[in-house]
Amino acid sequence: MSENRRDASFFMTATTQFGLEEVLAQELRQLGAKIEKIGQRAVEFTGTKQLLYEANLWCRTAVRILKPFAHFQAPDEKSLYREVGRLDWSEYIGADQTFAITAVVNKSSFEHSLYVAQLTKDAIVDQFRNRTGVRPSVDVKTPDIRLHLHMIENEVVLSLDSSGDSLHRRGYRQQTNAAPLNEALAAGLLLLTGWDGKKPLIDPMCGSGTLLTEAALIAQRIAPGLYHQGKFCFQNWADFDLSLWESVRMDARGARIDEPQAYLAGSDLSPEFIELARQNVAAADLEDYIRLAVRDVKDAVAPANEAPGLVIMNPPYGERIGEEEEMDALYKTIGDTLKTSFPGYDAYIFTGNLEAAKRVGLKASRRTPLFNGPIDCRLLKYELYQGSRKVKE
User: Fold this and answer.
1) For residues 349 and 295, what is the distance between their CA atoms, to the nearest angstrom?
2) For the chain, does the N or the C end have fewer beta carbons within 10 angstroms?
3) 310-313 vs 346-351, strand pairing mode
4) pLDDT tens digit sequence for 322-359
5) Sheet strand arrangement including 98-106
6) What is the C-alpha separation between 92 and 90, in angstroms, rounded?
């Protein structure tokens, strides 16, 4: 492969969760990307093949890194089949490879994304069959090549999905409690706080430890993609550059800092959750960086001999009927603990229960809208002064 092909810039799209777009754009800038557009749940950017590899390894808040390669109008079924069939699919898929198509359809005359994906698949398979008599197979679980079709108002963009399995699935999580944060969201929450990776970080309701694990990855400068299970899909592309990929991976491994950079500690009332957290932390090889304990949130205290830092938590939202009183009491306890035990800290509560959050009894200085799955949430910031100012309800 010639060097100029390796160094050529092209368009890419990184997808993320609602509310994390600016954070992701900043991550990409730090890798050397030129940001072209920040949209909803997506960032469009340009960069080289090396950047594509690095984005998959390093982006903590990305879900997928896509490489668009075709753009056309498809007002009806015939035009979609025809336009897909005009592309030379041998450039993207080998006859002996498996593939899958994910379709996202918005404001279109097509009502069902699955139907759009099926029609696209038919056009691809028919082209192979007509030209060579053999056709690639569909594998929806672990395909060699993943295609992404985005249709909005009958305008179609086809992309190669370079990531394969969603980047939020780091691979270190052994098992989880009932309602875990996904890893990309957890990393996004930490990056939204502006935490510098040096100050103490405490999670007094840590569950299975996702926030703490992501904090350790940030503090120790560990690329989350090093935990990725199996291949990234770009490793199956015809233009895959093995030597470049090995160089990028080697650089990522070399970037890790072994000496602990920050005091990281978490606790939870549930011994079962703390055991889960220990298993996840061990799977990520981070036992040297995170302290865990079984403790009720009302008994949480700031560490002695450490300067004030960040306290962050994702308490239960109380989604079952009849839990209102229980949640009100819990959030009042959280507020009391913050006021009495963490003077000088910045506190962040990520919650989908904004009514219960009023019981914290502190005035939020910032409220960032986000989603946890389908749940409308807020990341609430509280500045805990010495003798924090209370708010009357």
Assistant:
1) 18
2) C
3) parallel
4) 688 899 999 999 999 999 999 999 999 999 999 999 99
5) 34-38, 42-47, 10-15, 64-73, 155-161, 145-152, 98-106, 137-138
6) 5
Rounded (10°) angle between helices 183-193 and 210-219? 60
Q: Of 283, 280, 288, nearest to 264 (Cα)?
A: 288
The arrangement of strands across the sheet holding 375-383 comes to: 290-294, 264-268, 201-203, 310-313, 346-351, 375-383, 366-372
Q: In sequence order, what are the residues at sequence separation of 6 or more whose Cβ sits closer than 8 angstroms to the Cβ of residue 115? A: none
Let me know: does 286 contact 297? Beta carbons within 8 Å: no
Q: What single letter denotes the amino acid at residue 239?
A: D
Are 65 and 54 in contact by the 8 Å Cβ rule? The answer is no
Residues in CB range of 12: below 8 A, 6 or more apart = 33, 44, 45, 46, 47, 51, 52, 55, 65, 66, 67, 68, 162
